[in-house]
Amino acid sequence: MEYININNKEYKLVIGNGNDDKYRNSFNTLTEKNFGFNFEKWYQDGYWKKQYIPYSLMDGDDVVSNVSVNIMDLEIFGKIKRYIQLGTVMTDVNYRKQGLLRAIMDRVILDWKDKGDLLYLFANNSVLNFYQRFGFSEVKQYQCAKLISNNGKLGVAQKLNMSDEGDRTLVYNKANIITPFSKIYMCGNAELIMFYCTMFMSNNIYYIKDHDAVVIANFVEDTMEILDIFCEKEVSIDLVLRYFTDENIKKVKLYFTPKDTSSYIEIPLVGEDTLFVLGEDKMLLKNNQFMFPELSHT
Fold first, then answer.
1. Fewer beta carbons below 10 Å: N end or C end of the chain?
2. Which residues form the N-acetyltransferase domain (predicted)?
3. Closest to 278 in 3D by CA, of 115, 152, 164
């Protein structure tokens, strides 16, 4: 058992895997307090695996602060890389401003800085200065968008039911197929995709039988937002659009960077969480216009 002394008080450090029910329940309780959701369904569905590693400080039986490590194998501009994404950064309200997160961050950076090409995270505007203290640098992201014309629908996009085991299996299997539409995409992390598909995006999953493709999309007023596309044979995004567009849809926004951006406007992301990076691939990202896929965020 490992303990960390902070301001003359000892906290137990737990590097968790979710299998300890008592620990997981406390971890979920803190997550619910901070973010309004928890990981229990994700765990019970069998998707919490070795890529997601919480580093938690416990006061007695209670998780009071946490930073989670996410092992991300990604193709970055044509090369396979191992990046380490930090997420689920949280502290119980009664334990804030006491140095708990700093202690966890120091340990995480020590453990992981030499195990990948980059450490990175997404931070909200209230904590930007915090991450700079550890050597993280801000990198701008760019979103692709364009106006679209109604050329007539090609067929039906069937909405999937994520409460149905068969539909969940279909999505999981497609998410495991590497047919990249993006300049940056995840390799072999369908479990993270399922976190979104079974929770926040459960009403936004479609299947195009003509192309055996799963499309994750949202519709806001006259705009179609495409989060991702999964299929064995690559099809054009414009072709996918023709299974959805009608007279009400005038624009499309992509929440990933497509291979071919020539027909899109690349807009700097504003009002979103800020990307911070630390490591040898920092300049590679700073020298390119891109967006980490939305469904790769942890």
1. N
2. 13-161
3. 115
